[in-house]
Amino acid sequence: MEDYSGYFRQGDLIAKYLKGELSHPEREELADWIAQSEHNRALFEKLTEKDTLGQELDRFGPGDKEAAWERIAAETGHTQTARTTYIGTRLGQLVAAALVIVISGLLVYQVVYKDTPTQPVAQQLNDILPGGNKAVLTLADASQINLDDATNGEIARQSDMVITKTADGQLVYDLSKATAASSSQRVPVVAYNTITTPRGGKFRVILPDGSKVWLNAASSLKYPTKFLSHERQVELNGEAYFEITHVKTSPNVARPFRVCSEGQVVEVLGTHFNINSYSDEKSVKTTLLEGKVKVIKTLANVSSNRPNGKTASALILKPGEQAQLASGNRPNLNLIAQADLEEAVAWKNGQFHFKDTDLPTIMRQIARWYDVKVGYQGKIPDMKFRGRISRDVPLSQIFQILQLSGVNFKLDGRKITVKS
Q1: Radius of gyration over alpha carbons of the chain, in Å?
Q2: pLDDT at position 187
Q3: How does DSSP assign 146-168, residue by residue?
Q4: Spatial CB neighbours of 144, under 8 Å, sequence gap ≥ 6
């Protein structure tokens, strides 16, 4: 396999140049490389351009090209007149690491793959690509539709409901497209569907009442194809972000929406919130962004469909708050008054967001999104990480950032070994 260490060395030198951290020997080394050819000189000029770096760094965080450049300039002090810096925070280290990776990656592409652009660089390096819009829809009759392979447009009809798949990875339940014959049925038939995302998958659903659900990797949502009773209820395993439509059963009575997950029920009317209920996490987290929700701790499991009357405790959340239901035999329901909303919904916005996050938690997120298995060799490093990384980058770029913080990895197929 090609040795790319030289390109990463040059990337490191160029990053240090932008930050004003070159030692005298490193300055001479970079100057010698630039002087070797006109191609190297042109590459250096291109890789130190504001527009080039701003566009590439935008993949590591939110905002447009100009905002991305301003973030790196703030951390490195890179302006038109000065290139001095002081990086003293973990976030600064991650931004600096992103700078090295972007420059090195552009070097590899320009030098090695410029003449063979038909295949993505990540595939040529046997890299693992990020997840995408993947899910399986299980209908009421137990038949399954692989949404990865299904063509866009109508994919099924159930009673008076038409199910459509859109080009942007969304499943829509639409009553307005029903035929006159099916709509004239006197007794509506209620059927239950389940959408399941694999590891490395995500999908969106517009429910029959117009509510929107974003489903994260390794998750499932069970719901009726039509909400008929005085309440609306779904069952969640894994993680999902909800935007619930406000519906009234009468002019003065609102119809509640309930999300049942392991050990709790969340009751809402019309609101935006996120539930993380993965079984391998330390707690179930319900984070409210807009509106009001009631989180009820119960002794029932998901399959019971509703609280069993043995309610242990409940919390009313206001926007910006988070309820945490600890796992174990004696779970506690705790209120976090000031939750990090960006961190809670970063996955929905296409990011990993780490805020004093330990390595095992990071690796669980990586395992779900890249569909890999994770093991540890030796003691698990006791480290905390801060920063944002795009979920659209190949796995190797995640590794490069973590390795610059002292974490080592070995990749064998789809098995990652973290080595201390």
Answers
A1: 25
A2: 54
A3: ETTTSPSEEEEEETTEEEEEETT
A4: 136, 137, 138
User: Tens of pLDDT along 163-194?
Assistant: 999 988 899 998 765 554 444 455 556 789 99
3-state helix, strand, coil in the chain (%, to 5): 30, 35, 40
From the list 266, 256, 154, 273, the residue with the least C-alpha distance to 209 is: 256
Integer Cα distance of 79 and 74 in angstroms: 9
Sign of CA dihedral 259, 264, 269, 273: negative
For CATH 2.60.120.1440, the residue range(s) in the chain are 132-344
Residue with tokens 């009809």: 157
Q: Which string of DSSP letters, residue by residue, matches 315-351?
A: EEE-TT-EEEEE-SSS--EEEESS--HHHHTTTTTTE
Q: Is the pLDDT of residue 76 over 60?
A: no
d(CA 24, CA 199): 48
Q: Where in the chain is the domain with CATH 3.55.50.30?
A: 351-419
Closest CA to 94 of 330, 408, 402: 402
Residue range 132-344, CATH number? 2.60.120.1440
User: Which value, to the nearest 10 degrees, does the dihedral of the CA atoms of residues 408, 412, 415, 418 take?
Assistant: -10
pTM of this prediction exceeds 0.85 = no
pLDDT at 301: 46
Beta strand ranges found along 100-231 (DSSP E): 132-133, 136-138, 144-146, 153-158, 161-166, 170-174, 192-197, 201-206, 212-215, 219-224
DSSP 83: B
Amino acid type, 139: L
pLDDT tens digits along 337-376: 899 999 999 999 999 998 889 999 999 999 999 999 999 9
CATH class of 351-419: alpha beta
What pLDDT, on a 0 to 100 scale, did the predictor assign at position 305?
43
Instruction: Decide if pLDDT at 308 tops 50.
Output: no
- Of 194-198, 226-230, 393-397, the range with the lowest mean pLDDT is 226-230
For CA atoms 405, 402, 279, 377, give the dihedral sign: negative
